[in-house]
Amino acid sequence: MEKTQLLSLGLCWTILFSVSCNKPSPEKSAKEMASIFVPNPQEVAEKQVPKLKIGEKAPFFNLPNVDGKLISIDDFREAEVLVINFTCNHCPTAQAYEDRYIQLVDEYSDKSVGFLAISPNSPIGILPEELGYTDLSDDFKSMQIRHEDQKYNFPYLYDGDDHAYSLAYGPTTTPHVFVFDKERKLAYSGRIDASEKPGTGKAEDLRNAIDRTLAGEVLEPEKAITPAFGCSIKWAWKNEYAKKVNAEWKEKTVEVKKISTAQLAEILKNDTDELLLINFWATWCGPCVIEYPEFIEIQRMYGERDFQFISLSLDSPVQEAKVLKFLKAKYSAIPNYLIDTEDKYAVINVVNNDWDGSLPITLLIEPGGRVAYKVLGEINPHKLKRAIVDHPMIGRYY
């Protein structure tokens, strides 16, 4: 073989070896994939949901935590007892039991008990109208926010794409807890305790199940399975109703009414028994146009409670047709007003509240006219929703 051929062959082997050495190992690839997890909720054909029976083995799961890393049942192999809480962000009952679960995890931190939570809900099956007791839906990003806001001390896993693993467990509501022994056989299924309102229960049922299972005891049949009260699981095949309601909203009548500054002053007094959210905007205001759909979602979320959103355009009164066209495009089926004056300074004097006249401005007004929350400029949708739901007139629980 000639020298040039040998050099060429050696170079080829060098290149091949280099490529092989730099190729990520399967283990590294899995970690990289986990760190860049992208949720993809899908429509799923209706399936039968089995109910896991006492004594049956815990089905395998391998799901993304809120940090994007995959967590499987094998990660808890050292725990004598494993507790899985099927829960979610939006459900009032789930929120009512949230602090109790966090406290329980702290109390058993020095015992061989593993705790985690799984959100089985499909985001595509949830309507804004179902979010009247929360600031968050059940999508993956919202789970990350809830985990951070509430300082969860346990993994919070997402199974909202296709319910691949939740279906094997068969939770009926959120929350629904499952307790497994060392062999990962089901020892308890049901409620955390029998008192939903925060501060009225101490996780008695779940605590008893954990303690008895740690002691190697078998629970009596009537204590091994209890009813789990809460919100129904949002399986992806239940999204036909969501499609129907969304379509109906788009068919609602959209109108705009001109009002004077005197009428605006009366509106700001909020002589009602509801929280009033008012957004001042204009079609020529870029941030106003971009954020406007958020307000329609907020109205749909809280509109069935003691809450009302109205919009007020500061376009020129002669631009009524343009304003109405925009509102129809945004399906703004709420009270829409257009200020009937070119004197914007008169409007500023009526609104006051340190407003310098720049748009947008948003006010959350209590009955009697007190401003409970205001945003000068663009809103942070999550912060605004949180201000609404955490107001004493609304609240997160029944």
Description:
Residues 1-34 have low confidence and may be disordered. With 398 residues, the chain is an alpha/beta fold. Helix 9 packs parallel to helix 12 (344-351) and helix 10 (286-302) packs parallel to helix 13. The protein starts with a helix and ends in a 9-residue tail after the last helix. The protein has helices at residues 3-22, 26-35, 92-107, 140-149, 166-169, 204-214, 221-224, 240-250, 261-269, 286-302, 320-329, 344-351, 381-389, and strands at 62-64, 70-72, 81-86, 113-119, 156-158, 173-174, 176-180, 186-190, 231-232, 257-259, 275-281, 307-313, 336-339, 361-365, 371-376. The protein is 35% helix and 17% strand. The protein is built from 13 helices and 15 strands. A six-stranded mixed sheet has the order 10-13-12-11-14-15, with helices on both faces. It has a five-stranded mixed sheet with strand order 5-4-3-7-8. The protein has a two-stranded antiparallel sheet with strand order 1-2.
Q: What's the story with the biggest beta sheet?
A: 6 strands, mixed
In terms of quaternary structure, what is this? single chain
Which ranges are low-confidence, i.e. pLDDT below 50, for 5 or more consecutive residues? Answer: 1-34
Q: Would you report the number of β strands?
A: 15
What is the mean pLDDT?
91
Name the structural class.
alpha/beta
Write the layout of secondary structure elements.
Blueprint: H1 3-22, H2 26-35, E1 62-64, E2 70-72, E3 81-86, H3 92-107, E4 113-119, H4 140-149, E5 156-158, H5 166-169, E6 173-174, E7 176-180, E8 186-190, H6 204-214, H7 221-224, E9 231-232, H8 240-250, E10 257-259, H9 261-269, E11 275-281, H10 286-302, E12 307-313, H11 320-329, E13 336-339, H12 344-351, E14 361-365, E15 371-376, H13 381-389
Parallel strand pairs: 3-4, 4-5, 10-13, 11-12, 12-13
Antiparallel strand pairs: 1-2, 3-7, 6-9, 7-8, 11-14, 14-15
Helix pairs in contact: 9-12, 10-13
